[in-house]
Amino acid sequence: MTSPLIVKKHLDSDRIFRLRKYLIGFLFIVVFVLLDRTTVYLQVLPAISAWYPPVGIALAFLIGMGPRYAPLYWLAGLISAKVNYHQPFFSYIFLAGNSLDFGTYTLLAIVLRRVFKLDWRLTSIRDVMVLSFLALPLSGIAAFLATLTLVLDHVIPWSGYVKASLDWWVGDAVAIACLTPFCLVLVMPVVRHFTGLARTAADIELASGGKSIHEAQGFRRAIESLCFVATIVGSLWLALRPQSTGNQNMFYIFFLPIVWIAVRRGLRGAATGILMLNIGIVLSLQFSGGDPSRFALLQLVMLVLSLTGLILGTLISERDRTEKQLSREEERMRLLLESVGEAVYGVDSDGDCTFCNAAFLRNIGYPTSQALLGKNIHEITHHTRADGSPYPWIECPLRNAFLAGEKV
Predict the structure, then answer these.
(1) How far is CA 347 from the centre of its chain?
(2) Are 167 and 50 in contact (CB under 8 A)?
(3) Is pLDDT of 241 > 50?
(4) CA 20 to 30 Å from 127, out of 9, 52, 358, 363?
(5) In 10 A of CB 330, how many CB atoms?
(6) pLDDT higher at 218 or 313
């Protein structure tokens, strides 16, 4: 029978987590509206921004927390449309445009979670590919439909419909490619833990996995991080300085820091580096007053850059997880061998020792396994016949049985 104290404690815990979920929902609306406000200064056409980060965090929120939070996305979109863009209540863009945008990304989140079984942690290359190659085309559909409402409101002429739709799509696509993975990988675990959502075995494994064995640690890690930041700043200066206006081939420099960060830090590092670089590009062009044609090209560069960094970072993270799993399996096998009282050893096709336990080492008089690994067991244990004549490895029945796959 459950005691009243335990029941009360459970109810108090549920109440606290419920309040935390309300708080997260409120903060989501606030952050969405504030980020939407920044896009007012990044417009390439009326009501169309060159980079629209609210859609990136909204998609991450729906994927990580679930479609039940979709009404908050719709509400945040309406508030932003009225407060930041001053759209009339009875206009196509306010009623139909915002609803189309909300409906498309809510449907996308449902399809990713339930149909494609997307792991919101983006733990595999499959997850990144599914997110990228499903979200980007659907964002294009949403952009073309929403831009149509601007045409119906006579904000954009019919002659500029295709260009405006493409600008809207690329702005949303860049935000999804750089901000959604960052939120899913680095922000969403904290949010889910704060709101008390159930932690799976995969969550616990990722949280306790620690850093990759290939990553720098301690002071070296801090120095390496500073070098990453310096490389990003340097690439921004080289590619976007006034003297480089006529040389658009300098944009390839942006790939150098992202590839370096992805190789060293995996997906988490790549997502962070991509976000920092994209923010730097947007701010640099905003404050330097770059021409719109150059900014349109940079949008495409940012999109390709984000996809490249994410795929490479995911591959590196998968490699690190595989190495950790192999290390754990090796440790488990070692403990299993050490717990066995009988002598156990293994050999390769040449008869060289690949593993052994302590009992076998004691039997043959070797102090450690390192002194035995790689040596031919036949030459150590039964290299001589009973009459003292040599017993070559090629005549050993154990070898013949091993190569033939027979039991001895």
Answers:
(1) 40
(2) yes
(3) yes
(4) 52
(5) 11
(6) 313
Cα–Cα separations (whole angstroms), residue 229 to 182, 208, 258, 298, 336: 17, 27, 11, 20, 46
In 10 A of CB 193, how many CB atoms? Answer: 12
Q: Is the pLDDT of residue 290 over 60?
A: no
Residue 174 has pLDDT above 50, yes or no: yes
Q: Is the distance from CB of 168 to CB of 146 less than 8 angstroms?
A: yes
What would the pLDDT profile of 264-281 be if each residue is shown by its tens digit?
Answer: 999 999 999 999 998 888
User: Which tokens belong to 364?
Assistant: 């043959």
Count CA atoms closer than 13 A to 394's CA, side-chain side.
Answer: 0
Condensed to tens digits (0 to 9), the pLDDT of residues 25-56 reads 999 999 999 999 988 877 777 777 878 899 99
d(CA 249, CA 239): 8
Sign, Cα dihedral of 262, 264, 268, 272:
negative
HEC sequence for the chain: CCCHHHHHHHHHHHHHHHHHHHHHHHHHHHHHHHHHHHHHHHEEECCEECCCHHHHHHHHHHHHHCHHHHHHHHHHHHHHHHHCCCCCCCCHHHHHHHHHHHHHHHHHHHHHHHHCCCCCCCCCHHHHHHHHHHHHHHHHHHHHHHHHHHHHCCCCCHHHHHHHHHHHHHHHHHHHHHHHHHHHHHHHHHHHHHCCCCCCHHHHHHHCCCCCCCCCCHHHHHHHHHHHHHHHHHHHHHHHCHHHCCCHHHHHHHHHHHHHHHHHHHHHHHHHHHHHHHHHHHHHHHHHCCCHHHHHHHHHHHHHHHHHHHHHHHHHHHHHHHHHHHHHHHHHHHHHHHHCCCCCEEECCCCEEEEECHHHHHHHCCCCHHHCCCCEHHHHHCCECCCCCECCHHHCHHHHHHHHCCCC
Average pLDDT of the chain is 83
Tell me: pLDDT of 374 over 90. Answer: no
Please give the C-alpha separations between residue 291 and each of 172, 188, 278, 286, in angstroms, as whole numbers: 20, 36, 17, 10
Q: Quick one: CA dihedral 98, 101, 105, 107, positive or negative?
A: positive
pLDDT at 288 over 70: no
Query: Is the pLDDT at 330 greater than 70, yes or no?
Result: yes
97 is written with which tokens? 């445009």
Closest C-alpha to 100, from 54, 171, 172, 149: 149
Query: What is Dmax (Cα atoms) for the chain?
Result: 105
